[in-house]
Design brief:
Length: 157
């Protein structure tokens, strides 16, 4: 069984980005989107700061928080070989009811890939007052070009 990370959310968070479950390299480093070919941080820095991407994970989180963005995963834990979502089984969804009670200012959820949206929607459906965006996965397994991913991700901010 593998476990997700705690959420990176505070009282200023208005936008929540949700992945499905951290990949192998992220779990090893204990950092979201740690795979060097994952486009997530390059997209965030291109949109909200400037390159190069900070090395320190705390600095990356600080960039998100300065823009009222939080980060978490839909799944609390699961069984999975490798990093691909298609290998997920015996999953448990995180407690979003409690999260939204604690952070009612969250009005937008951006899903990093279709699978995170599918797992979330299956359990919670459409939550009133929250706008959903399903973005292409930033994973290197998604072969869409960086420029196309950037264009699509930019449209939801």
């Amino acid at each position: 069984m593998i476990n997700s990370f705690s959420p990176y959310i505070n009282n200023e968070t208005k936008i929540l980005i949700l992945g499905t479950m951290p990949g192998v390299q992220s779990l090893e480093k204990q950092e979201y989107y740690a795979h060097p070919r994952n486009h997530f941080w390059k997209i965030m820095y291109t949109l909200f700061s400037e390159l190069p991407i900070a090395v320190a994970f705390d600095e990356k989180i600080k960039l998100l928080q300065e823009h009222h963005i939080g980060l978490w995963d839909v799944l609390e834990n699961c069984e999975r070989e490798g990093s691909l979502d298609i290998h997920i089984k015996n999953q448990k969804v995180n407690d979003f009811n409690s999260l939204f009670e604690q952070y009612p200012q969250i009005r937008k959820i951006i899903f990093n890939g279709k699978e995170s949206h599918r797992y979330f929607f299956k359990t919670f459906g459409q939550i009133e007052g929250i706008t959903y965006y399903v973005m292409p996965s930033t994973s290197p397994a998604n072969t869409m070009s960086f420029d196309k991913k950037l264009e699509l991700w930019a449209s939801c901010f």
